[in-house]
Amino acid sequence: MMHPVDFIREKRDGKSHDPAALGAWVRAFTAGEVPDYQVAAWLMAVYFRGLNEDETLALTEAMASSGEMLDLEGLGPTVDKHSSGGVGDKTTLVVAPILAAAGAVVAKMSGRGLAHTGGTIDKLESIPGFRSSLDKDEFLRQAKTVGMVVAGQSADLAPADGRLYALRDVTATVDSIPLIASSIMSKKLAAGAGAIVLDVKVGKGAFMKTPEAAKELAALMVRLGRRAGRRVAAVISRMDQPLGQAVGNAIEVQEAIRTLNGEGPADLTELALTLAEEGLALAGLPPERARAVWQSGSALAKFREFVAAQGGDPRVVDEPERLALAPEVEEVRADSGGVVSALDALKVGVAAMRLGGGREKKGDPVDHGVGVYLLKKIGDPVRPGEVLARLYHRGRGLEEARALVASAYRVAEAAETPSLVVEVVR
Ligand code: URA
């Protein structure tokens, strides 16, 4: 391998790395042969100088192969789904059963929530009995028998990304498009699916604040995946206001079940069907099956089967009110009348976290019952004194959460309602 100082200097001076040398660098720091301060210095050089597409692909593939690469070959048409993170984003819980009911195999590893964004695993763990730690044999067996399995991300999946991400987090180098793209795609490549559908969020509550940046990230991830031999598409969707009406854990699972039942909010339903159609097309299955299995109830039945297979109480699927919410309810009311013109996703996400629904730091326990229910969203008319949102709480963080939700709303005379799906990048 090139000497670390020479390698860092190459990027500092704006030169391109040889892809093979970049692969050797990733293997060296994963093996503990390069100290954190040199990796951190290189990350800052990358932040300013960027990586070209060949370098980004080399980084992605080296991180993907730094741990175990799952082999899903032989399971049928496998589809993975990833969201770049948002508030109220329970889309996986709706998309995965639709895909599985339509004939695809979804063997997915998901994360826990961090900061103001929720995580699919925390949401699923609000179902009594649900087990998210599965060993590899259980994981593959359930993928085969049920066609759907969702487990916590194994520590052996792209460990080089885990190391880099932790350093990026503390060196102000997270928001670099090549670093984000390689981080996400390394985990998707290691997870083994042949088709990958990405939900790239744009707006106030997202990493990417402008449609141009979101499009650049989406297009890069699609090209990286394709060059690595996978079929990939990306849906760019707005994250200015939370998705759906529920933000929390149990409350989001309730909403996902209602959506599978045909009674969910329009935005969540639209996004889930769009993602499922793209995923089916990538897998070589008819996209129109997405809507058909959703309407026939077979996606809901698939969700029930999945919950039971992972030890969860399947009765929650028919009676979502069995998912216990915190007993105290506080209402936030409108001061004036008009139309909701803004509903800040970041503030609502932080409010749910302060109530105890998310983590202030890694490893903190999560209260599955607390959350926020948004009765009014952008474009909805409101009368003075009308209830905008309900907070389900146990006293903790209530005053701050209440103030955050109240200030997240803007009521004006009129509002623009931009469409949820901005673009699909194929
Ligand atoms: N999500 C990831 O997994 N990695 C990033 O760098 C950003 C978001």
Describe the structure.
By secondary structure, the protein is of the alpha/beta class. It has three domains: 4-50, Transferase, Pyrimidine Nucleoside Phosphorylase, Chain A, domain 3 (Up-down Bundle), CATH 1.20.970; 79-318, 3-Layer(aba) Sandwich (Pyrimidine Nucleoside Phosphorylase, Chain A, domain 2), CATH 3.40.1030.10; 328-412, Aldehyde Oxidoreductase, domain 3 (Alpha-Beta Complex). It has helices at 4-12, 19-30, 36-49, 53-64, 91-101, 120-124, 136-145, 159-169, 177-190, 211-227, 250-260, 266-282, 289-296, 298-309, 315-318, 345-357, 398-408, and strands at 79-83, 106-110, 148-152, 195-202, 231-238, 246-248, 328-333, 338-343, 371-374, 381-382, 387-393, 409-412, 421-425. Helix 10 links the parallel strand 4 and strand 5 (231-238). Helix 4 runs parallel beside helix 9 and helix 5 (91-101) crosses helix 12 (266-282). 54% of the residues are buried. The mean pLDDT is 95. Bound molecules: uracil. Uracil binds at residues 84, 165, 174, 179-180, 183-184. Uracil is lined by residues 84, 165, 174, 179-180, 183-184.
Q: What's the short story on this structure?
A:
The protein has 426 residues and is of the alpha/beta class.
Secondary-structure element string: HHHHEHEHHEHHEHEEHHHHHEEHEEEHEE
Ions and ligands = uracil
Q: Architecture of the largest domain in CATH?
A: 3-Layer(aba) Sandwich
Taken as a percent bin, the fraction of beta residues is 15-25%
- CATH T-level topology of the largest domain: Pyrimidine Nucleoside Phosphorylase, Chain A, domain 2
Main-sheet strand order equals 1-4-5-13
Q: How many whole angstroms does the radius of gyration measure?
A: 22 Å
- The named CATH superfamily of the largest domain: Nucleoside phosphorylase/phosphoribosyltransferase catalytic domain
CATH class of the largest domain: Alpha Beta
| Low-pLDDT stretches | none
Shape: globular
Count of helices? 17
Oligomer: single chain
Major β-sheet, in short? Answer: 4 strands, mixed
Structural class: alpha/beta
* Estimated helix fraction: 40-55%
**Kindly, what is the distance between the CA atoms of the first and last residues, rounded to a whole number of angstroms?**
37 Å
Q: What is the total tally of β strands?
A: 13
Q: Can you tell me the number of structural domains?
A: 3
